[in-house]
Amino acid sequence: MRVLVLGSGGREHALAWKVAQSPLLTKLWCAPGNPGTASLAENVALSPEDPEAVVAFARTQKVDLVVVGPEAPLMAGVADALGAAGVPCFGPVAGAARVEGSKAFAKEVMAAAGVPAAASETFTDVAAAEAYARARGQVVVKADGLAAGKGVIVARSAEEAAAAVRELAALGEAGKRLVLEEVLEGEEVSVIALCDGERYVLLPPAQDHKRVGEGDTGPNTGGMGAYTPAPFLTPAALAEVGESVIAPTLAVMRARGTPFRGALYAGLMLTQAGPRVLEFNARFGDPETQVLLMQLAEDVLPLLDACARGQLAPRPLAVHAGVTVGVVLAAHGYPQSPRKGDVISGLESVGEGVQLFHAGTTRRDGALVTSGGRVMTVCARGATLVEARERAYAGVARVSFPGKHFRRDIGARALAEGS
Ligand code: AMP
Ligand code: GLY
Q1: For the chain, which terminal residue's Cβ has fewer other Cβ atoms within 10 angstroms, N or C?
Q2: What is the CATH number of the domain that holds 211?
Q3: Is 188 in the pocket of ligand 1 (CB under 6 A)?
Q4: Residue 191 sits in the same domain as residue 303
Q5: Does the predicted model carry a pTM greater than 0.70?
Q6: pLDDT for 417
Q7: Within 10 A of 269 (CB to CB), how many other CB atoms are there?
Q8: DSSP-based helix, strand, coil % in the chain, nearest 5
Q9: Residue 246: its pLDDT value, please?
Q10: How many Å lie between the centroid of ligand 1 and the Cα of residue 154?
């Protein structure tokens, strides 16, 4: 098969790495890719967000499958354009990707599907939202649209809540509608289902670490590290999430005429009353994908292809025993203002079994330098969480660049749980 992966982050490097192991693969491109994907695929200077350019490339190169990493190409209608051109695409059409693009729409879908979720109200009037927020005091304020990780504020007092409403309303387009939601407490877990529009298979539960600082302190980021499986969601509870969250959501999307083909990511809070959906994403998570694909013990390509063609056979996936841990190395100043251009060294000295997935890296005069906030994810598998962490952190210690920072507590809450 001739496969094109769209995107340039750690998630896309991991997708390329896993697809490259498939005996079915004959040719792999990444657009635009990164220095990590360059060793596995042909990187092509093609904008993932330009549907016409992607279709033209797919046609000329006789691409059999396009795998979309990030959300922006989905919102731009890349899957719609490929569908119209008859090119199979792993990634939903724009109308289905709205479950990520609009939190108010996601809430509508959750309600229609009867999915257990946080109770919420949607507002278009800022004054009304502010009055509601003040009355609530403790409330989560969410901008409806995509806001680069800055669209959610958990307020703990009436003053904070009112300020959060004003702040998110000032975002412009993304803040035109605001979703005000009850504050839930519990462990957060990411569940990713590979879907063919009707049927799904579940990847093991993963846990991301969204705050920049240890102990979940400091500002939100795209994710500072992840591990899988997260012990907080047992296999039986995971299957239950499939039935109570994924299946009804797929049924609603299909009934609306926008079947969901791709990775449906449910961000869950495991409350005392059971799992509640906090958000949907219409794509693989980053850095969850890096650890999930290392944990997956079967060929990913037939799965992605079956989803894209609407021919998925539901079944449990083969996964390795043990645990995979991934630690994100971030650039100086991330997430506020990441510095670029720091020289990276030590990649060749990470131990055997440690996988480096590039994200914000580039080549400059032959040297590898930082070019973005999340520079790379260092991943390792182990028989236990303790072993996987030891291996991953040994790898982390080998890679160096000025300003490098990372969290030392990836997986620590599961360790405390005694797994
Ligand atoms: P979201 O983009 O909706 O997942 O929100 C980003 C982060 O805000 C989540 O990962 C949670 O840590 C937090 N969050 C979102 N919704 C809630 C909620 N209802 N209760 C508590 N925390 C929340
Ligand atoms: N790691 C969270 C996300 O991909 O949205």
Answers
A1: C
A2: 3.30.470.20
A3: yes
A4: yes
A5: yes
A6: 81
A7: 19
A8: 35, 30, 40
A9: 98
A10: 7
Which residues lie closer than 8 Å to 3 by C-beta, 6 or more apart?
19, 25, 27, 28, 29, 63, 64, 65, 66, 67, 301
Determine whether 211 is exposed, middle or buried from the number of CB atoms within 10 Å of its CB (0-12, 13-18, 19+): middle
Q: Is 218 inside any structural domain?
A: yes
pLDDT beneath 70, residues of the chain:
418-419
Q: Is residue 8 part of a domain?
A: yes
Range of the domain at 237: 185-309
CB atoms closer than 10 angstroms to residue 239: 13
- Pocket test of ligand 1: the residue of 154, 180, 280 to mutate, having most ligand atoms within 8 Å of its CB, is 154
Q: How close is the Cα of 265 to the center of ligand 2, in Å?
A: 9
Q: How many Å separate Cα 170 from the centre of its chain?
A: 26
Quick count: other Cβ atoms within 10 Å of Cβ 409?
A: 18
Distance from Cα 108 to the centre of ligand 2, integer Å: 21
Domain co-membership, 229 together with 129: no
Report pLDDT for 352: 86
Question: What is the pLDDT, as a whole number, of residue 418?
Answer: 67
Considering the domain boundaries, does residue 419 fall inside one? no
> What's the domain count of the chain?
4
